[in-house]
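Box 3.1 A note on notation
Throughout this textbook, protein chains are presented in two layers. The first layer is the amino acid sequence; the second is a token string describing backbone geometry. Keep the layers aligned when reading.
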Amino acid sequence: MQTIFAEVFALLLAAVILVWLFKRVGLPAILAYLVTGILAGSHGIGWMTISYEMHFIAELGIVFLLFSLGLEFSVPRLMAMRHLVFGLGSLQVVLTTLLGTALLWFLQFNWLEAFVIASLVALSSTAVVVKLLKESGSLNLRSGQLAIGVLLFQDIAVVPLLIAFPLIAQSDNQVLVGALSLALAKGALVCVFLWAVGKWLLPKIFNEVALVRTDELFVLTTLVVALCAGGLTYLFGLSMALGAFLAGMMLGESQYRHQLEAEIRPFRDILMGLFFVTVGMQLDIPYVVSSFLYIVLALGALLFFKLLIIMVSAQLMGERKKDAIATGILLWQMGEFGFVLVALASKHQLLDANIASFLIALGVLSMALTPYLIEQTERILSWFKLDKERFSGDFHHGLGVDALNDHVVILGYGRVGQTITRFLKPEAIPYVAIERNPILVQEAQTAGEPVLFGHAGQKAILESAGVDKARLLIITCGDFEQCQKLIDSVKQAAPEVKILVRMRDDIHLEALKQLGVTEVVPEALEASLMLVSHVLYMSGVPMRRILKRVSKERQNRYEYLHGFFAGDSADLSEHSTDRLEYLHAIALPESAYAVNKTIKELALDKQRVVITALRRNGEEIDSPVEETMLLVNDILLLKGKPRRVERAEQYLLEGLA
């Protein structure tokens, strides 16, 4: 027991030191984990031994990696980038695999080894490239968008490779087609089942879990879902990672996507780090040293041929030469999924140990050289007498949170948050809100509001809202302890962003200023009205008249501010539901009674309910006129007292008054 503890402690200590060191010099953490494995393995210092349990735990990292990858995929995003993803991406992967297989076969490799190696080389590093693009601010460049499109297809291509490698190893040439067909049939069945579960069951489960508002339960549920999906595909003889990917993709359309990604990230990163440690432990150092010249030659060949294939593919798709070359420089390296597939191929005896070590060394060196080559892009383009563009405006970005810049981030979408957004919208000030109440988020998203579900104290959620690009961040909660935690998280994610805090009073004003808050706004409006009441009373004005004046002032001043998305009944506990007006979004299905009828025909004013806005085909119409004809898939924003809004909704959907 003491020996195991000492081995694990030494492994963690080495990982901490090397990750810190590599990050200090600008290299990815993946390389640090690989070096940790090299040191810990039998060809290094040799204090660790690879056990079955360690392999299993490391493979869970792949499961969580594919789950988080699935969360990144959304059908609208794929459709918006289909020209790049399925055009340029597929062309690059197919050409690299076919030409690589032919070249390796010519170099006396058998066709099976040639195909496996070529398919590994076709993949690039999503983690390294995306990180470097974000750090350099190059995501808006045309070359950056081309790289993202290709990486998306490469990530998709990993899934069939995960299925194919075990089948190729288990089958001979005569039964391979049948085995692949059976696997595809099983995969289709599992996909349909997981799609049904993900569409109808999982959102309800996470809705109930989110209502409890307990972080531990949300984390546990996320882990259980990922592992159950992986276990299901494993029972059908497919990869656990495939099931996790499908589960993630199904949940990628829900409002819980960002929170799920934030919850799974710590487990994913730690277990993936352990996976790369096990990969590094398999690296045969003496073989690498003896074959170092061949590895360097292979590195040069990889750079030349992959850059050439990507450049030609991009130009065939109509891209400019400088964009094509810059994209090739971004994507020439081997990727982290290459290590995953090397381990899988070695496990099924598709590659011998020497070739696996050669490929791992090739991948490590290519990833280490990538940051340097990207920095030299302008110099490389100058060799071709081309200048790297600083911004290409011909790429049309999709609407959404990802496209926001110089916007306002609002932490909390309750009454205060909604009031703020209603003043921002008429002024065309972009904004995004973060809220933990799942029902409130669903109501707001249905009405077309940019509201993310998640805990605002988590750095990943703040990054999803683009806090580093925001002009201002507003904290709407009035609790000082909670504000302290939120401010600390915000400062870690975006040290320079201006922060505006709402407080019940100014007791903690100085403390908040010291934490880096730009401005503190105490709740003073009602206090000012009470002060006016006292002034008038002490001036001899009758109390009845004072109350009438104050009531009229509230009615005149706050009519625009009345009405809030209710979220759930708990949000109404402070108010009388007989007097409070709130907003409710309702989508009109094809069977709705209100379809093909005008607002005037429906006569909702008789029920004392008002349609404050209508959303149609992504566009919002404020205060639609009575002659407006309601159509299928219209989203109406109803305003009124809760019971009246409920009756109006039933009337619009079923025609029952």
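Confidence is low (pLDDT under 50) at residues 388-399, 569-578. The first strand starts at residue 408 and ends at 411.
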